[in-house]
Amino acid sequence: MDWNKTKSIFIIVFAILNVFLYSLYLERYKEAESVVFLTESSNEEKLEAEGITYSNLPEAAGQLPYVTGTMKTFVATDVPGVDLKENRRNDKLLSVSFTEPMALDGKISTETLEEFVEETIYEGKQYGLWKIEEQEKRAMFFQEINGEPLFYSDSGNLTVYWNDDGEITHYEQAIFENIVEGEQQKDLISPVQAIHNLYQKRFLPSNTEIDSAKLGYSEYVTVSENTQMFLPTWRIQATFEDGSEEEFFVNAVKGDVIELKKTEQAEVTQ
After folding, report:
1. Ranges for the Regulatory protein YycH-like domain (predicted)?
2. Under 8 Å between Cβ of 173 and 94
């Protein structure tokens, strides 16, 4: 037997087989892409038929991991080096009142509040301003995970209060530390899919206008006594036909609707 010829035949056969398998893979891949596209298109058509409108939605974020964090226990050195009327530490919640209200460098605004937080409060740069409630004279900040807000977490927020003169009187703070990303990246659904899921679950009636979609995190499960796991989450802000507003949260990995527990001071939507 001529082994050289036999070897050449095997090489040629395997090369042809590889080309065939690769072409089959490309065909299946294109079919899968077509199915995803048609599904997204079908969702858009259903929403349009119900008068559920939206514009300028962010693109799907691709992939994000689950994240874990540990609730911080505050110590004396975490408090600003100023005169304090009260410094109450309740394990994971820090409550600080100033002896003399602190004047801002200007009127109450996004810029002056963010500057105060960054320069005065422990790890202030980890918080992002969520909303200003002028009537209640307070502002809510959410801790940010990888640059995205951690929605309505009692253990990852900051509330700043001021008086009639626009001076900061006190604040309450909680924060997660030791933030660790999971090794596995998770595919995320698109904001259109999140909106469609809300529609399917009857959270969105006909003629609803979607004002915004924001990607962030929400508390998922308790890993240990002081450690929480965070889940990528879409926050959908909607205005109904009667003019009322509501915000919804959707699991950005599995698509189910999340009902977050909000504190009393967080009930007014942004």
Report:
1. 40-253
2. yes
Give pTM, 2 decimals: 0.79
- Tokens standing for 163? 């008086």
Closest to 176 (Cα-Cα) out of 236, 216, 126, 131: 126
Q: Decide if 169 contacts 175 (C-beta within 8 A).
A: no
Read off the tokens for 176: 């997660």
Q: Find, among 227, 226, 223, 235, the residue nearest to 260 by Cα.
A: 235
Q: Domains in the chain, please, with CATH?
A: 71-177 (3.30.310.160)
Instruction: Report residue 266's pLDDT band, with 50, 70 and 90 as the boundaries.
Output: very low
3-state per-residue secondary structure call for 166-210: CEEEEEEECCEEEEEEEEEEEECCCHHHHHHHHHHCCCCCCCCEE
Three-state secondary structure call for residue 29:
helix
Residues 6+ apart with CB under 8 A from 113: 104, 129, 132, 139, 160
Rounded CA separation 260/221 (Å): 13
Q: State the distance between the two ends of the chain, measured CA to CA, in whole angstroms.
A: 81
- Taking only the tens place, the pLDDT of each residue in 138-195 is 999 999 998 999 999 999 999 999 999 999 999 999 999 999 999 999 999 999 999 9
Angle between helices 191-200 and 3-49 (to 10 degrees): 50
Task: Give the SS3 label for residue 83.
Answer: coil
Residues shown for the chain: 270
Residue corresponding to tokens 């889940």: 231
pLDDT 10s digits, 161-170: 999 999 999 9
Q: Is 102 left (phi over 0), alpha (psi -120 to 50) or beta?
A: beta
For residue 5, count CB atoms less than 10 angstroms from its CB and return exposed for 0-12, middle for 13-18, buried for 19 or more: exposed
